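To illustrate the input format used throughout this study, we show a single complete record. The first block contains the structure-token representation of the backbone; no residue identities are included at this stage. The design step must infer an amino acid for every position from geometry alone.
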């Protein structure tokens, strides 16, 4: 696992955007796994800037998002489909048919989840999966105690996750209780993955994910089993790491040390 501790939040977002752009440049036809959440907003802003400047070409890229709320159709403003349209897809030279999210309005969410997992496989799997992390260690919406062998399925969100997501909904609206999410085994099948965590609210989960035991109690700890996982952190999210000095020696400022 590569642990990159960047000088500040903006640098961490930029490092993440660079890794995504490198994956797109490495293979016309790259398959990206994408994430939503507040942490990703600066990353997508950078990608929009690069699209506008003509330095990023997503025309050959296929995308699969991690998750979608059950019960929200794609035209609901807080659905992850609408969020992704707003944050990235509307600005991109990306055919909408190449952008995939689970259908939150599907009449049978369990069947939709299985269809989605199969669609990822049919596309040849994910080259690079972008991930955030919940304060409780979730990745996607794999809440604590999710099976490390799980596939895409319906998960019940914890009260903590619903409270964190409530900020995206109006005072009259209830944050959804269920989501269709890629499973942990689905995520581990990506050829590489990059997790971005920023802010003090993520420090405990980040430390458990990187330095704790591999355990369903912290779903992000499953990334210790991934052969190509990169954790990109700002100083606040890195604050609880015991081996912080070591990571900073190996990757000064979140970059590569000359050998
Ligand atoms: C979103 C997702 C979640 C978020 C996580 C962090 O697609 O899969 O795992 O990445 O809840 O959310 P923020 O960035 O809002 O703290």
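Output of the design step:
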């Amino acid at each position: 696992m590569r642990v990159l501790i960047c000088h500040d939040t903006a640098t961490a977002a930029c490092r993440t955007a660079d890794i995504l752009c490198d994956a797109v440049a490495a293979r016309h036809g790259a398959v990206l796994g994408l994430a939503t959440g507040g942490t990703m907003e600066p990353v997508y802003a950078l990608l929009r800037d690069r699209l506008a400047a003509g330095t990023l070409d997503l025309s050959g890229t296929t995308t699969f998002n991690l998750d979608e709320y059950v019960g929200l159709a794609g035209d609901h403003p807080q659905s992850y489909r609408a969020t992704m349209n707003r944050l990235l897809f509307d600005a991109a030279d990306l055919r909408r048919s190449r952008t995939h999210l689970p259908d939150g309005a599907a009449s049978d969410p369990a069947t939709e989840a299985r269809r989605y997992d199969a669609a990822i496989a049919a596309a040849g799997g994910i080259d690079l999966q972008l991930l955030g992390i919940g304060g409780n260690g979730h990745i996607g919406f794999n809440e604590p105690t999710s099976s490390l062998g799980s596939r895409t399925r319906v998960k019940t969100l914890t009260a903590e996750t619903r409270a964190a997501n409530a900020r995206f909904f109006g005072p009259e609206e209830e944050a959804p209780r269920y989501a269709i999410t890629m499973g942990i085994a689905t995520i581990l099948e990506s050829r590489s993955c990059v997790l971005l965590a920023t802010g003090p609210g993520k420090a405990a989960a980040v430390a458990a994910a990187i330095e704790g035991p591999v355990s369903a109690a912290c779903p992000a700890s499953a990334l210790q089993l991934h052969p190509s996982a990169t954790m990109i952190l700002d100083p606040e999210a890195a604050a609880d790491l015991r081996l912080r000095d070591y990571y900073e020696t190996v990757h000064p400022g979140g970059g590569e040390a000359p050998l």
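Structural context for interpreting the output: Helices lie at 9-26, 41-53, 80-87, 109-122, 159-165, 184-188, 203-211, 244-250. Residues 9-26 form the longest helix (18 residues).
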